[in-house]
Structures are given as structure tokens and as C-alpha cells.
Amino acid sequence: MKKIINTVNAPAAIGPYSQANMANGVLYISGQIPVDPATGKLVEGIEKETHQVMKNLEAVLTEAGMTFKNVVKATIFLKSMDDFAVMNDIYASYLDPESYPARETVQVSCLPKNVDIEISMIAHQD
Known about the structure:
Belongs to the RutC family. The chain is an alpha+beta fold. Helix content is about 20%, strand content about 35%. The chain is built from 2 helices and 8 strands; from the N terminus they run βββββαβαββ. The strands form 2 sheets. Strands 1-2-3-8-6-7 form a 6-stranded mixed β-sheet, with helices on one face. The protein has a two-stranded antiparallel ribbon with strand order 4-5.
């Protein structure tokens, strides 16, 4: 059975999708962009953007009763691979080195609201 996960601590969906869906113990989190859920405004600059995206993902995980330790897969979309090193250091700071998820990072030409980063995740209940 599918359960929709929704929290006010992450940005509301800006289209016909859910923040996340739980199915058979697997949580599929939609791509998060750097919108501050408290203000509804975008944060700017790859450092602030990456922190905001990770906070948004953490809020969805928390709503589902999980943490970053439950994440098994991450997909990162960057507008520029020149931002990779900065993003990577910030991304890693939110994770437990003993339980890094699988991941790919790809450069794309454009993202929603013209942001510099978007990250989606898949997590699994213990």
C-alpha cells in the first residue's frame, strides 16, 4: 500500500506530485530544490542552496520516521559541475560516513525555478 508523506517543514509541491511516497517500507522522495519552507523563497548561492536542499530532504525523512542513515540512493542534479566540490562537502556533512548511500551526480541545463541544485532520494525502513 502506498502512503503519501507530506510536511510543512519542506516546500510544498509545485506541481502534480507528492513530497514523498512510502511503499512497502521504501520511501521515494521527490526532488527538492532550495526553497525555504518558512518563507517560500529561494535561497541563492550553491552553499546556501545545498544546505537548504539537505534540510528539506531531512524534514521529509523525519516526517516518515527516518534519517539520512535510511537513505539508500541519492540523485543530484547540478546546473554546473563547477559546483561539485562545494556541494559534495556540504552533502557529506549531513551523512554518516558508515552509511553513505549510492549516488549519481549529473549536470543539467536547467532546473525548476532556475536553481543550481536539486536532489532526490530513496530511503528504506530498518
